Amino acid sequence: MSQTEFDQLNEQMLVKLFEISPDAATQSGKHKPYDLHLPHGGFKRLDDTLNLLESWHKEASRIADSAELTPDQGISLELLEMSLELQRFAIDDYPMWKMYPNGLEHPGWLLFLMAVREYAPLPDRVEGIVSRIGELPRYLGEFRQRFSNSKPVRVWTEIAIETCEGVPDYLAHLRSFSQDSISSSLLAQMDKNIAYANEDIADHKDWLKGMLDVSVEQFAMGREKFAKLLKIRGIDYLPDEILAIAEMTIHELKEERVIISGRISPDGTPEKAKQIVESDTPDTIEDVLAVTSSETENAKRFLIEHDLITLDHEGILNFVKTPEFLSSAIPTAALMMPAVFDKTQHGTYLITDPPDKADLRSLWNRAAIINTVVHEAYPGHFHQGAVSNSKPWMHQLPHMLIASDTMIPAYEMMEGWAHYCEKMMYDHKFCGTDKDALAMIEFGLWRACRAIYDVELAHGDVSIDEMVEMFVRETSTTRNSAEADVKGFSHTPGYGLSYMMGRKMVLGFRKELEHELGQRFDEKIFHDQMAENGNLPFHLAKRAVRSAMALR
């Protein structure tokens, strides 16, 4: 009975969570009546969420003390505790909510999600879009109250101003996108709400410009707090250990780059090899999208033909150019994951158009496209997201709480899996040329550099400019791309290290299982289990996967 009581409690609390955060409901695939509303824009939302998590955890722990939970329920309870600790950290230890003034980023992302994720007929989705556009002035007014007695970070304020410059154009795009599919009365309401919102966005932009005068340069949380954040996430490595691993990884990858470059270019230099690889680049971002779509189908066929993973879900993946107002948050590519409660597993593959042709060649040459397809689509994020949605929704609780003013959840499993897949597919000869190897090495250097500036910026030991210089020096990327990457990850502490460290954890775990199981180790089963448990923090996924494989 207590197991049933535990599940009933979670369902009741989910309703309360979505009442506080209707945006989380939309992202998770629960739409009515939530799609019509934005959350409170101020501190109230964070405080209400904290109070809910505290009462939820207290009652869930009481139930757990009275009877044995199932393994999945045990994991759910641990995730609830982690979510509570991350929420406390975001409020008390590192109050991003009164440091990061980009009030339009999250609502803008939400409007974009509703436009591209086909969970309902377009007129129904536009009704929610129109309603939420109408609530933007209220939301932004509440948001500005956060800074009554605090000062925003300067670089993040500059990013917020850029967002303000891009959102009105996106609202105009939404109108053009919708006008032929909705009633005249809804279109009239859309025009009214957009005009009202644009007025307030202009006022919000002026407010941000004024806040620049009182903004601060420093945003580091410090060594002690960063170590605490990693501990909450279940990461066993100390920050200085992560730095040492990243520096060693860069050294090893640069040695590999010299060897591979010698096989690509007659003169053997990485610079010349890079030019050869970049000579095969689509002409426009639209061509990049088309090639990405084609290579995604190739990856799916390869996985099936080589029996590397089970592909039995009917997922739909769209390929979309990143809206300009989101480009600071998505410097290269991203995957909008399918929602756990939506019947159709619908994902959106975002590709950012860089500012000039040199950046296009650097980011989106054909070898880079193929490597990114493996990471973002199959068997990486999209596949992992679709199959992991078959697990209890409580396994995604930390992801439901994501906002621009909270701590990111334990992404080392998701990013580690996708990064692992790059090498795994290369080893199986899907992308097995020297050009593919060079692209994979370059992305590996990116991930190691991200780990370095993640730790160093959190510690306060370096400036953003110093990390941009390091990025350019250690990789072959352009300064524009490096600056976008460092600034984009600067307000998500703990994310940048998730790629390199996650891959290290996945590879290490695979070796452990190969040793423990011997000839009973099955690569396909390992891949299936890692994908199925992809929403979990690594230490919990490791437990679930080990248990499942031991039973086979």
What does this structure look like?
With 552 residues, the chain is an all-alpha fold. It has a 3-stranded mixed sheet with strand order 1-3-2, covered by helices on one side. The chain has helices at residues 2-20, 22-28, 43-66, 71-93, 105-116, 122-144, 154-178, 184-212, 223-232, 239-264, 270-278, 285-305, 357-364, 366-376, 381-388, 397-400, 412-427, 434-459, 464-474, 479-490, 498-517, 523-532, 538-550, and strands spanning 316-321, 333-336, 346-351. It has 2 domains: 2-212, no CATH class; 223-284 and 300-310 and 384-504, no CATH class. The chain contains 23 helices and 3 strands.
The main pleated sheet reads as:
3 strands, mixed
> What portion of residues belong to β-strands?
under 5%
Query: Given the helix and strand composition, which structural class is it?
Result: mainly alpha
Number of helices: 23
Overall spatial form = globular
Helix content: 55-70%
Brief overview:
By secondary structure, the protein is mainly alpha-helical. It is built from 23 helices and 3 strands.
Note the main attributes of this structure.
three-stranded mixed β-sheet
Topology:
Elements: H1 2-20, H2 22-28, H3 43-66, H4 71-93, H5 105-116, H6 122-144, H7 154-178, H8 184-212, H9 223-232, H10 239-264, H11 270-278, H12 285-305, E1 316-321, E2 333-336, E3 346-351, H13 357-364, H14 366-376, H15 381-388, H16 397-400, H17 412-427, H18 434-459, H19 464-474, H20 479-490, H21 498-517, H22 523-532, H23 538-550
Parallel strand pairs: 1-3
Antiparallel strand pairs: 2-3
Helix pairs in contact: 1-2, 1-3, 3-4, 5-6, 6-8, 7-8, 10-11, 10-18, 12-14, 14-17, 14-18, 17-18, 17-21, 18-19, 18-20, 18-21, 19-20, 21-23, 22-23
